[in-house]
Design a protein that fits this description.
This protein has about 180 residues and is an all-alpha fold. It contains six helices and no strands. InterPro entries: DUF3035 (IPR021395).
């Protein structure tokens, strides 16, 4: 009677260890919010309240606009490093980028490119969203959804070299 119990325990222990972690955290690349709690990175503490020098110089309240006590991490980081936070608000390209922009737009531009890409991306995610509903095995939904669009860097390097374009050395191809 002891032998079958021992055998069952060993088999059970073996099955449990086979279901264990593969040595890498696959859940970090799922890119889905699986919890029902708040997103810790979306909560920013507000700046402390300060009495203005003149109440008459305060901007008029604008519904939906930023509050004076709202955090602005990018502007705060630029200011902390000695830069000008107002430079972040510039909406026109720098004059030094004129040549680059002229070359990039030499064949024309598509004004609604962001909307087009957003619609195409939504179609990809919608079509892939029904595939792994039961979640059998450790799957990486993000990688699986976009795998057809990945660039094969080694094949591209070979293509460029065959065309006579010098390319930097690359790490060896993984098997």
């Amino acid at each position: 009677m002891i032998l079958p119990r021992c055998t069952v325990m060993i088999v059970t222990l073996g099955l449990l260890t086979a279901c264990g972690n593969r040595g890498e955290d696959v859940t970090l690349t799922r890119l889905t919010n699986t919890g029902d709690g708040p997103d810790e990175f979306s909560i920013l503490p507000s700046k402390p309240l300060q009495t203005p020098e003149s109440y008459s110089e305060l901007p008029a309240p604008t519904p939906g606009a930023r509050n004076l006590t709202d955090q602005d991490p990018k502007a705060d980081g630029v200011a902390a490093l000695g830069g000008n936070p107002a430079a972040l608000a510039v909406t026109t390209p720098a004059a030094s980028d004129a040549g680059l922009l002229r070359y990039a737009s030499r064949n024309g531009t598509q004004p609604a490119i962001r909307e087009t890409l957003a619609a195409e991306d939504a179609d990809i995610r919608r079509s892939y969203g029904r595939v792994n509903v039961l979640r059998f095995g450790p799957r990486d939904n993000y990688a699986d959804a976009y795998k057809d669009q990945w660039l094969d860097s080694h094949a591209e390097e070979e293509r460029l070299r065959r065309s006579g374009i010098d390319t930097p050395s690359a790490p060896p191809k993984e098997d």
